[in-house]
Design goal:
alpha/beta, TIM Barrel, 2 domains, 8-stranded parallel beta sheet, 27 helices
């Protein structure tokens, strides 16, 4: 028997973002539900065909989602909160859970919480469970897709989220705390999973992939016991497919015995992130288990070092035999773009270094076909060696000036001149803001007109002068609207920017950008990560022109808007030939220059967003200290060169901060804005317990939902916040940027938000900062 080529999952959005456009057309009423479902079927058919043509033996089914795989899992096991049951139509109910819902009859539903999928930039919907939760099977979606594949001649390997990971990533309605993770519900959930196994066996499914990525986390005894209980029961099901237990994003380490004693028939491990775990596994893997080797990087876009991957495959084959070895990407390919051949403007050298999803399928199959120890070295291996040698010698990668400047950074460069309390007083004297000052996070709606103008400029149908005049008009109108709403601190709207990271990637040396390198962030939201291929530096200012123009249009404070070094790093495809911390410090120095230029140009407030600091945290606690040290130092290097009366803001969203608040405080931003609306201010509890010393802007409404919150709703949140934190250190803002929303809902929501701030001021008195 030969080595099997497999895949854990494929990008959902389509090479041309077909899913995005289908979803947004459906939500706007331009397309019917039938149109949307047909678009989904067309994408699945195309993706299955691509995998089959590449030579993949186990083709995943069930990994496709119209919004999110964790939301799909919640629906599959009947974990739909009672408040959504008022919506009869299943598809409308599904999207209400993801995006919120309002209708003309007065039904007003908030969306479920959303947070990051492990340490990726993908957001998942957090299932919400009751302590008395009753589960029931609703696997119609999975079964329908299995039958779709069969009609196309595809014998599939269905994919589902495992029961323990599902519970560990869920929350109870009364709040997610360490004691409230709903593992006690496992006994009620397992019968649903047993029924899935039975019904899949009836459908003659040979293999089932059960994703349990939580097995790479630090697990307490309770969680390990839950795994043992769950898989003892599932493995003993009298009628079931063979089970692939899939882990990724990290190493099993102390959870190794849990995985190999699970009774599953195969185990997948991530050998890109942690190649060293192969040795331990080969020593203890039961003879009844196959081993799936994740040797092709599912999270980055560089071509695989086929020599390194081939050596791991050969080692496994020698130990286990070819019939027990599979080759796969390290994780699902939803984290990479679809096809590098779609790129028309990337130069030949850089193109030769890249592999998107389709190219990664080819690499998997090459390793499976030529992975046996006694095979001759294939031409593609020789080509891989030649490419790596040419890349290592490329003058585009190394910049001696950048290296020299990095060596010159001192400890003094990482600190503000004065502590926050002193800065707070001088900033109050400069700005004279009211209690509960109102602002936004940065971006305002990028309308169809904005996108059309950008496309016309890039295609040459609009001159640079015409495009600049258009952007000036949009900026002026945006500021006029903010003044009419009566916001205290304004932003320029960011109409010149496509994306908060891509924009900076286009203005930095050592960074390239793609035309079609889209990946899904959540739902219909897609991002196009920059490609950091070499040493990073700034050749000229990136934001000063637009920030100073905007400030010239108003007497109110205008924030200069930058993306922080950790977030640029995390949301890019990063070179793999130097440590990530070194790349981050290079980015920080480039941003330090930009911050200095903004201050010199008269911008008194500068926001350096770092939503990815928590996301970048290693999955194992033992590695946290090292990461947090260099991440915090990078932010401080970027921001600490300003005067005391220049106010540094930062923004973080969809993160659990309780266990890293000391590091966030060390960042020493004057104001931090955070997401709290979906969690009803739960995150503030962490800031209270830590006694966070600086100013905080708890997001009072969820911009990822089209739902418009009322003034009373936001006022209640602010009054609650003001009772538990010093009102003199509270700001009022949405929970994220407004780029993806429309102007009518934005204006109504912000008017309500400003009204809520007035309510809070009356509640706590008209005192000012001081």
């Amino acid at each position: 028997m030969s080595i099997l080529a497999t895949c854990l999952g494929y990008p959902r959005i389509g090479a041309a973002r077909e899913l995005k456009y289908a979803l947004e057309s459906y939500w706007s009423g331009k397309r019917t539900a039938a149109d949307l479902l047909q678009a989904g079927y067309d994408l699945r058919r195309r993706h299955w065909s691509a995998m089959k043509s590449a030579g993949i033996d186990h083709i995943p089914v069930g990994d496709f989602s119209l919004y999110d795989h964790m939301l799909d899992a919640a629906v599959m096991v009947g974990a739909v909160p009672q408040r959504y049951q008022a919506i009869a139509d299943p598809l409308t109910r599904y999207f209400a859970m993801a995006r919120g819902y309002q209708d003309s009859k007065g039904l007003d539903l908030s969306a479920l919480e959303m947070t990051k999928w492990f340490d990726t930039n993908y957001h998942f919907i957090v299932p919400e469970l009751e302590r008395t939760q009753k589960f029931s099977l609703n696997a119609a979606k999975l079964y329908a897709e299995i039958e779709e594949a069969r009609r196309l001649g595809i014998e599939s390997r269905p994919v589902i989220i495992g029961p323990v990971t599902f519970l560990l990533l869920s929350k109870l309605q009364d709040g997610k705390t360490q004691d409230a993770i709903p593992l006690d519900l496992l006994g009620d959930l397992l019968p649903v999973y047993k029924r899935i196994l039975h019904e899949l066996a009836e459908r003659e499914i040979t293999w089932l992939q059960i994703d349990e990525p939580c097995l790479v986390l630090d697990l307490d005894d309770r969680a390990k016991a839950a795994y043992r209980l769950a898989y003892a029961q599932l493995a003993e099901c009298p009628s079931r497919p063979r089970l692939l237990l899939a882990t990724y994003f990290g190493a099993l380490e102390d959870n190794l015995s849990v995985a190999i004693q699970s009774g599953c028939d195969a185990l997948h491990i991530d050998l890109v992130r942690h190649p060293e775990q192969l040795s331990a596994l080969l020593e203890v893997l039961p003879s009844s288990m196959c081993l799936s080797l994740g040797v092709v990087d599912g999270r980055n876009i560089w071509r695989t070092n086929l020599d390194v991957a081939r050596a791991m495959v050969n080692r496994a084959v020698l130990s286990l035999g070819a019939h027990r070895v599979w080759v796969a990407p390290s994780c699902s390919l939803i984290h990479v773009p679809v096809d590098v051949q779609s790129e028309q403007k990337i130069d030949a050298d850089l193109m030769s270094w890249l592999a998107f999803a389709e190219q990664k399928l080819t690499e998997v199959c090459q390793l499976a076909d030529g992975g046996r120890f006694d095979d001759p070295i294939a031409p593609h291996v020789l080509a891989s060696r030649a490419m790596r040698a040419a890349k290592a010698q490329s003058s585009r990668i190394h910049d001696s000036e950048v290296q020299k400047r990095i060596q010159g950074v001192t400890e003094a460069d990482l600190h503000r001149a004065s502590p926050f309390a002193d800065r707070h007083r001088v900033q109050h004297a400069r700005f004279k803001l009211p209690l509960f000052p109102t602002t936004t996070i940065g971006s305002f709606p990028q309308t169809g007109d904005v996108r059309s103008a950008r496309a016309a400029w890039r295609s040459g149908r609009m001159t640079a002068e015409e495009y600049k005049a258009f952007l000036k008009k949009e900026t002026r109108v945006c500021i006029e609207k903010q003044e009419a709403i009566n916001l205290d601190v304004l932003v320029h709207g960011e109409f010149e920017r496509t994306d908060m990271v891509e924009y900076f990637g286009e203005h930095l040396k050592g960074v390239a950008f793609t035309e079609q390198g889209w990946v899904q962030s959540y739902g219909s939201r897609c991002v196009k990560p920059p490609v950091i291929f070499g040493d990073v530096s700034r050749s000229s200012s990136m934001t000063v022109e637009w920030s100073t123009y905007a400030q010239s249009l108003t007497r109110r404070p205008m924030k200069g808007m930058l993306t922080g070094p950790v977030t640029i790093l995390q949301w890019s495809f990063v070179r793999d030939d130097v440590p990530r911390k070194d790349v981050c410090r290079q980015i920080a120095l480039a941003l330090r220059d930009e911050v200095a230029d903004l201050e010199q140009a008269g911008l008194a407030m500068i926001q350096v967003d770092e939503p990815a600091v928590r996301e970048g945290l290693p999955l194992r606690r033992a590695e946290w200290r090292s990461y947090l040290r260099w991440a915090v130092d990078a932010f401080r290097l970027a921001t600490s060169g300003v005067r005391d009366d220049t106010q540094i803001h930062t923004h973080m969203c969809y993160s659990e901060f309780g266990d890293i608040l000391e590091a966030i405080a060390e960042m020493d931003a004057d104001v931090i804005s955070i997401e709290t609306s979906r969690s009803r201010m739960e995150l503030l509890g962490d800031f209270i317990r830590y006694q966070y010393p600086n100013a905080i802007g708890p997001g009072v409404y969820d911009i990822h939902s089209p739902r418009v919150p009322t003034k009373e709703e936001m006022a209640n949140l602010l009054v609650h916040a003001g009772k538990i934190l010093p009102p003199t250190r509270l700001w009022v803002n949405p929970d994220c940027g407004l780029k993806t929303r429309g102007w009518p809902e934005v204006q109504t929501a912000l008017i309500n938000m400003v009204g809520a701030a007035r309510v809070a001021r009356r509640q706590f008195g008209e005192e000012r900062f001081g």
